[in-house]
Structures are given as structure tokens and as C-alpha cells.
Amino acid sequence: MLKTTFFGKGLKNPLVLASGILGTGSDILNRVGKYAGLVTTKSIGPVERLGNKNPCVLEVAGGIINCVGLPSPGYLHLEEEIHGINTPWIASIYGHSVGDFVKIAKHVSGFNPDFIELNMSCPNTSDGMAFATNKDASIELVKEVKKTTKIRVIAKLTPNVTNIVEIAKSVESAGADAITAINSVGPGMIINADVKKPVLSFKTGGLTGPMIKPIALRCVYQIYENVKIPIIGTGGILTGTDAVEMMMAGASLVGIGSATYKEGVNAFARIAKELESWMKANGYKEVKELVGIAH
Amino acid sequence: MDQPKTCRIKRIVEENPLTRTYFLDCNMKISPGQFLMLWIPGVDEKPFVCSYSGKETGITVEKKGKFTEKLFMMKKGDLVGIRGPYGNGFTKKKNAIALGGGLGAAPIASLIDEFGCDGIIGAHTKSNLLFLSRFKKKVQYSTSDGSYGFKGRPTALLEKKLSEKKYDVVYCCGPEGMMKAVIEICRKYKVECEVSLERYMRCGFGVCGACACNDRLVCKDGPVFNSRQLSGMSDFGNKGMIKSGKKVPLSEYFAWRE
Ligand SMILES: Cc1cc2nc3c(=O)[nH]c(=O)nc-3n(C[C@H](O)[C@H](O)[C@H](O)COP(=O)(O)OP(=O)(O)OC[C@H]3O[C@@H](n4cnc5c(N)ncnc54)[C@H](O)[C@@H]3O)c2cc1C
Ligand SMILES: Cc1cc2nc3c(=O)[nH]c(=O)nc-3n(C[C@H](O)[C@H](O)[C@H](O)COP(=O)(O)O)c2cc1C
Ligand code: FES
Question: Rounded to whole angstroms, what are the CA distances from B18 to A49, A266, B13, B123?
């Protein structure tokens, strides 16, 4: 009942492991792939990068705040991590320039991922937001990457813009095959009253988890009304009903990240089960029937 | 809420020139093998197991690099943050023996306190032996150079104990090479075995993936694993991920600084 397809690729369910959750190692991704239709790697960067110091991932009311800061072995050291992956997967990549994205896209295409996701929107590096907040930059980026690879390209957008529809339309016009929305919200900050200082090492961090669900739903709803390419709706999904709502807003697939907090990999099995029960109870036979029906 | 809660350093005990025990003014219920994340504001945050977890909460720390050097500069009454407890901890069974090698004696000592089992604490030489006056009769000590207790590796003493008496389980923490050897010994004597792993950690609660060892998260599925689980983990004793997420041989992992 949960089986679906995405660009012809058969998936066991519409759930997608969001980028940056649980890492890039093929063993752990394969473990998640037993329960999720698709898994996304941690965003892969141009050079080895340590990311930020701790504390960089903490709980806040309603979710998680993180400033992990895109640690990466660098795209040339990927082999050790990725070889052995045997489940449908998305290679997430990031760069500081169009040139970075292009060379990484070219290289990871060699590993034959099912999709390449462009993380145009990480808030935890000084220059990370540039691509997904600027119309022209996003168009150029998607165009150049599309020229480099035959693998389908997904543009991942940030909600931290005045008009997400404008960016969604731009990446569509530039040839993106799909959109992931959204990345983390904010950034936000926590301060410890005893220490009298911000707690996160980077001072600020992106917000994720249930608190951002209303923002994610709104973004997906608006994007769905304005573009034709499919959407991976991500942000704050914790239950099967959350996933239903996200598909009703217009998502073809549903990304899950922070739900692994407390529950680990089991979150996927549980959400899949809840989704299936909801569909049975409400007379739906295929997840595709749900997409966009809130409009 | 998984955010650091502040507490003060209550007491500092010098175990040897490079190792100190910090007693913290907090009341965290933490079972043997579980760990907490210790935050030094403005510096960094790293995982530590408890070496004392009954009436008092204490961690035993070896001065190794940036973070522990900063900790060694702190004094009684200074403010730190802690969050946790995290991880699974050791499972309590009857007829158990616990082995701590080097700094691995830290979790093993609190385990012996709580579980009341037999124990072995080993080090290269007497001045490195931890908790010498802490235990009365249940614990035997070993030194490689014979300067105190049993002369030889703690694994040799373990084999001797296993051949003398039937145990149901061996708990172990120490260098990964030693733990590998202990697993082999336990296989030979058909005894169950649980060991505690160490990997670089960020979140400590199973989200970021920094601590992955094959398909297991050391912070959440571990840090304690049994021999059956470890037999499916080829990275055990072989590979670890440094802070960038690059997987490297363990020798490189343990030589890396940050
Ligand atoms: C679950 C868990 C429990 C731990 N419990 C304790 C404890 O009770 N007492 C204690 O002193 N330490 C413990 N550690 C290790 C501790 O978190 C720090 O990694 C260690 O103190 C080094 O920190 P540093 O910043 O001073 O050194 P760094 O500057 O990071 O490195 C200095 C040297 O320490 C070694 N080193 C660094 N990181 C690690 C690592 N992850 N594993 C092994 N060696 C490393 C390397 O030889 C390196 O050259 C634990 C780690 C984990 C994952
Ligand atoms: C610890 C952490 C690390 C993340 N790292 C990345 C990343 O490397 N690349 C990326 O595109 N998104 C990253 N994200 C964002 C997630 O992929 C996702 O878009 C976001 O968490 C919203 O979904 P959620 O509410 O289900 O967590 C990260 C999120 C978290 C919590
Ligand atoms: S430290 Fe983040 S998953 Fe283990």
C-alpha cells in the first residue's frame, strides 16, 4: 500500500531520510533503508572540513537546534563511506561556488546515486545561504549542475527567504527535476543564564523538528501551487498523520530528520505503520492519491 | 531538556600526574557504562563516563589534548555544564567479572560499586594504576612490569580467573585492541562479553551520525556492545571516524587531535 515511485524508481514507501541525519556511512544508510523509501547522505563538500565544535546539536522546546556546520571528509574521500550502499539513495552536495558544486556533482555521479540533492541552503556556515536566497544565483547553479550530470537533480530550499515561491520557480525554470523543502529555520539561539553566554559553539543554529512543521507545510503548499516538479516535503514530521498532512500540502515524498531524536531508526518503521493505518481507515489505496488534496 | 545544565566542580582528586577525578555537584542518576556530555563554556563539550555514580557523581579524566588541558586548569567551585545520561550501559547479570585497562578502569570502577562483581584493574606500572585504595577484596590489580599485583597483561589475569571459576559474563573497557583480545578469550571460555566503545561524538543522542561504527551509533545503540553485536561490526578494532566524518584506521583516529 505504501509502495510508490519517484521518477520511475520504485520505493517501498514515501519516507525519505533527510540529509545530515545519521551521516553518510553506507552501513547506517542501509540500516535506515530497510524502513525508508529513500535515504539522503550528509551533504558532501569540496574539501575536508571539521565543522563546528560542540555543543552543536541540542534540544530546544519543540525540536532541535544545530550548528554542526557541514563537516565533510571532502568529496575525494567518499569511497570508503559510500561503497556498499544497496538502498535507493540521494547524494546531497554543497559548495561555496558553482564550480564546487559542478566538480562534486560530476564526481558523485560516478557512484551512481539515484538522485543528487543540492544543499543550497545551509545556515550554519558564513556563506551557506547564498544560493537559495538569490534568484539568479540559484538559476545559474542548477543550470550548471544539470549540464554536468545525467542524474536527476533536486534543489533543496531554505524557508528563510521573503518569497520561497520565487526561488522554487527559478530552480524549476533552470531545469531542477524536484525540490526538497525545507531546510532548517532561523537561525535561532540559546543562552545559558548561569554562564551568561550563548550555548552553541557557533552561537546560532538552525531549528528543526515539530516546531517548524507549520512553516514547512506552508512552504510546500505555496510551492505546489506554483511549480509542476515534485516536492520532497521535509520539516517537523513525527507521525503518520504528519506525513499525510505533508502530502496533502503537495509533497510527493516526505523527509524525516529530527524524528530520529529519542527514537532512532525505529521512527521510520513507526511512521510508515501509522501512515498505512491512516490510509486504510480513510479508504486510500495509494500514497499518490493524497498528494495536493488540501488545495 | 537535552541542554547543558550547569553545576560546580565539588572536589578534585589527583589519581596520578596525568589523571584526575572531578566530583560534580549534580544529582544525575547514571548507570554503569552510560556517559554524560561535559561542557566547558567557551571551550568545547566531550563525552565522559562516570567513575563514581552512587552518592557522588565523578568522572576520571586523563590529560590528553585541548579539552582536558582546559579542564585540568579548572578549580573547585568552577562552573561546567552537563547533559545526559546517554547510552545503554552494561546489563546486570550474576557471576560477573569486570576488567578495566588503563583509563578503562573509570566505568569499570563504578560498575563494580553498583553490581558488586569481581574485578580486574590493569596498567603498565603501579603509578598508573587507578583506584588502588578504593576496592578491598573483590578487585585484583595487574601491572605489565610487575610493580604491583599480578605481573603481566590484565588479559592474562582474566584468563587465569576464567579457568578457575565459571563466570556468566565479562564486562570490559580499555584500549580497543585489548577489548578485541578479551572478546577472543571469552569465545574460548564460552562466556558472554560486553565492552564499551569510544568514538568522536557531537549530539550524544543518536541524530548526527558522528559516532557511527558500521550500522550502529555508539552514543545510542552503545557505547556498550556484546560480542554478538560486535561480530557484525567490522570497524570494531579497525576504523573510526574523525570529526570531519572521514573514516580512518584506528591508529590514525587515536593520533588525531581536536
Ligand atoms: C562514551 C565515551 C566515554 C568517555 N569517557 C572518558 C572518560 O571517562 N575519561 C576520559 O578521560 N576520557 C573519556 N572519553 C574521551 C573524551 O571524550 C575525550 O575524547 C578525551 O578526553 C580527549 O579529549 P581532548 O580534547 O583533551 O583531547 P584531543 O585534543 O581531542 O586529543 C588528544 C589525544 O587524545 C586522544 N583522543 C582524542 N579523541 C579521542 C577519542 N574519541 N577516543 C580516544 N582517544 C582520543 C588522541 O590520542 C589524541 O591525540 C570518553 C569518550 C567517549 C566517546
Ligand atoms: C543535526 C542536523 C544536521 C543537518 N545537516 C544537514 C545537511 O548536511 N544538509 C542538509 O541539506 N540539511 C541538513 N539538515 C536539515 C535536514 O535535512 C532537514 O531539512 C531539517 O532537519 C528539517 O527536517 P526535520 O524537522 O524532520 O528534522 C540537518 C538537520 C539536523 C538536525
Ligand atoms: S554523537 Fe550524534 S549520533 Fe552519536
Answer: 31, 42, 11, 14
Distance CA A122, CA A138 (A): 14
Sheet of A185-189: strand order equals A57-60, A63-66, A204-208, A185-189
Q: How far apart are CA B67 and CA A180, in angstroms?
A: 38
- Cβ-in-10-Å burial (0-12, 13-18, 19+) of B114 comes to middle
By the CB < 8 Å criterion, does A78 face chain B? no
Hey, what's the cell of B13? 582528586
Alpha helices in B167-238 (DSSP H): 176-188, 227-231
Domains delineated in chain B: 5-86 (2.40.30.10), 90-196 (3.40.50.80), 197-258 (no CATH)
Instruction: Say how far apart CA A139 and CA B225 lie, in whole Å.
Output: 49
Q: Which residue ranges form the domains of chain A, and what is each CATH number?
A: 4-49+69-192+209-289 (3.20.20.70)
10-residue mean pLDDT profile of chain A (295 residues): values are: 96 98 94 97 93 97 96 89 93 92 96 96 60 88 96 96 95 98 95 97 96 98 98 98 98 97 93 98 96 97
Residue with cell 557523581: B57
Residues 126-155 of A with CB under 8 A from B: none
Residue A263: its H or E element? none
Query: Is the entire prediction scored with pTM above 0.90?
Result: yes
pLDDT at B174: 96
For residue B73 the three cell numbers come to 586548569
Expressed in angstroms and rounded, the spacing between residue B196 Cα and the centre of ligand 1 is 13
Taking the centre of ligand 1 as the mean of its atom positions, its distance from the CA of residue A173, in whole angstroms, is 50
Our CA angle for A280, A254, A243, nearest 5°, is 40
Residue B228, by phi and psi: left (phi above 0), alpha (psi -120 to 50) or beta? alpha
> A68: which 3 cell numbers?
554542526
Measured in residues, chain A has a length of: 295
Helices B154-164 + B176-188 axis angle, to 10: 20
With an 8 Å Cβ cutoff, is A189 touching chain B?
A: no
| Closest ligand to the CA of A72 | 2
Q: Which of residues 247-266 of A touch B (CB under 8 A)?
A: 257-258, 260-262, 264
**Which among B92, B96, B91, B158 has a CA at the least distance from the CA of B122?**
B158
Contact between chains at B6 and A194 (C-beta distance less than 8 A): yes
Share of chain B above pLDDT 70, in %: 99
Pairing of strands A253-256, A231-234: parallel
Closest CA to A158 of A127, A184, A178: A184
